[in-house]
Structure to design on (523 residues):
């Protein structure tokens, strides 16, 4: 029996963001038991680090994971950040797409899905409410509140079930959540490994973690330098689309389109606006709201024909060579480490980015499989570890395309080696909403290769020197064994006193070492 169009749309519904992600939680990264728990750690740790740094506080995070049944855990996460004011707690933990990061600024997270996603997963798998304790300062007075919350999925907002005031000793937030259908693992994708890698990319933090067996791990901070806060960067003309221009025009308080361009785009001076006028013949004195789609497209095409300075990069804050090396030394205790922070570049014509790379060799570098250490590639985006989807990531591709044999690594898969790559940008080109792999932009791929080659050359010198030292020791043992005998017998045959052979021995071994290293023997 045929149905009319009106009947087909009688069941037409609108979904809130919470309802959508309740049906599609895999888009938040909550897919699989191990991955789901790791993503919870990721979201909570990321928010704690951001909050502490914005307040100028050295982050101190405590995590306690308790198993209460098969695939059933209670997670308690506590930080020493500035806390969350009472009115904002339901919004932070129970409203999707709510936050303060929706700007063109370098940030660990930019979607407003982190904490609320964790509460949604907890509620979906256990039906238990979230318990949030927050201590914060208001008008110089220290205040504290403890709340029991549930998410109203239909309305995309929080419901306060219980609330009480507390007397805190210091600022910070404590989160208690129940989870089922998750699993704790010591594997490369597990929660413990996520913390370990976080400490390398954030050496100024300290994390104390108690695992489900009761074992306590203290990851000490390797640096007391709080990273400077990134600054908002205006979009570059080469990086905007016609839709971006129309959006700016509809949501501006400027009266003329020319003033909108100079105030909303970087490297857009009055001189550039005049040049744009000649290329397009558009009246830039008109109101921004009167701008048409065709005119916006014409402007974007004109941008491609104009010469602009590269976008400003002062707003990008890399980890820094010294800080990366400190983090790797603290966690990996390697025999050799080298890092580099490259100069800023752009991809897609106008989006700035920085690539940082490092290698650690020997010690605890590499991942331990059985009794052998194998090479591990640690990928980061704005200091955040990317532990999943490694095979499809541009950072992995850039590292693996190198010929590692020329740098002294005969078998890349089986070496005590940790390779570190971090991309810093206001707009990291993730492949999906899970934010675990980077798109293969040509400029990014090339820069990853260049950065990795830079630190690999330093590793090559170390390996060569190490090999030379072994050969020198081996040769020295031979000479030390036979030269005294030869000298004694020669002296007997010549009926002379045995000469001092030690200077000769040192000269021979020094020359042999110089030959192995390919260096001149100055003496």
């Amino acid at each position: 029996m045929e149905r009319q169009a009106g009947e087909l749309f009688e069941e037409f519904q609108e979904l809130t963001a919470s309802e959508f992600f309740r049906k599609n939680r895999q888009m938040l990264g909550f897919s699989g038991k191990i991955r789901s728990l790791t993503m919870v750690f990721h979201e909570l740790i990321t928010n704690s680090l951001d909050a502490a740094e914005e307040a100028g506080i050295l982050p101190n995070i405590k995590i306690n994971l308790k198993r209460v049944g098969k695939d059933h855990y209670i997670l308690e996460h506590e930080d020493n950040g500035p806390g969350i004011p009472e009115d904002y707690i339901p919004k932070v933990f129970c409203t999707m797409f709510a936050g303060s990061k929706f700007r063109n600024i370098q940030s660990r997270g930019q979607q407003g899905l982190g904490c609320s996603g964790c509460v949604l997963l907890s509620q979906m798998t256990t039906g238990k409410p979230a318990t949030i304790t927050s201590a914060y300062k208001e008008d110089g007075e220290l205040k504290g509140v403890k709340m029991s919350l549930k998410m109203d999925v239909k309305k995309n907002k929080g419901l306060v079930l219980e609330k009480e005031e507390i007397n805190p000793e210091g600022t910070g937030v404590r989160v208690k959540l129940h989870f089922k259908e998750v699993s704790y693992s010591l594997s490369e994708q597990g929660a413990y490994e996520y913390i370990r890698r976080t400490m390398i990319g954030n050496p100024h933090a300290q994390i104390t973690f108690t695992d489900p067996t009761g074992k306590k791990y203290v990851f000490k901070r390797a640096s007391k330098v709080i990273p400077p806060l990134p600054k908002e960067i205006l979009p570059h003309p080469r990086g905007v689309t016609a839709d971006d221009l129309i959006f700016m025009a509809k949501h501006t308080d400027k009266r003329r389109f020319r003033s909108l361009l100079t105030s909303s785009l970087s490297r857009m001076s009055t001189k550039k606006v005049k040049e744009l006028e000649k290329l397009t013949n558009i009246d830039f004195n008109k109101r921004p709201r009167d701008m048409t789609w065709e005119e916006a497209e014409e402007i974007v095409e004109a941008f491609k024909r104009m010469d602009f300075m590269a976008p400003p990069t002062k707003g990008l804050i890399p980890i820094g060579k010294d800080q990366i090396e400190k983090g790797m030394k603290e966690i990996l205790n390697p025999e050799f480490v080298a890092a580099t922070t490259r100069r800023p570049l752009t991809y897609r014509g106008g989006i700035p980015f920085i690539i940082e790379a490092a290698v650690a060799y020997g010690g605890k570098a590499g991942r331990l499989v059985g009794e052998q250490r194998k090479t591990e590639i640690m990928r980061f985006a704005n200091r955040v570890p990317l532990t999943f989807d490694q095979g499809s990531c541009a950072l992995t591709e850039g590292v693996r395309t190198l010929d590692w044999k020329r740098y002294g690594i005969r078998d890349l898969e089986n070496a005590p080696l940790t390779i570190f790559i971090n991309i810093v940008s206001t707009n990291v080109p993730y492949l999906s909403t899970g934010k675990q792999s980077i798109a293969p932009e040509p400029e990014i791929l090339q820069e990853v290769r260049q950065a990795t080659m830079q630190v690999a050359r330093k590793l090559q010198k170390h390996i060569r020197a190490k090999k030379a030292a072994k050969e020198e020791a081996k040769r020295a043992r031979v000479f030390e064994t036979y030269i005294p005998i030869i000298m004694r017998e020669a002296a007997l045959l010549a009926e002379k006193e045995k000469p001092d052979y030690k200077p000769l021995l040192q000269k021979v071994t020094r020359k042999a070492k110089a030959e192995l290293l390919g260096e001149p023997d100055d003496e």
About this structure: The chain has a mean pLDDT of 84. The CA atoms of residues 30 and 36 lie 4 Å apart.
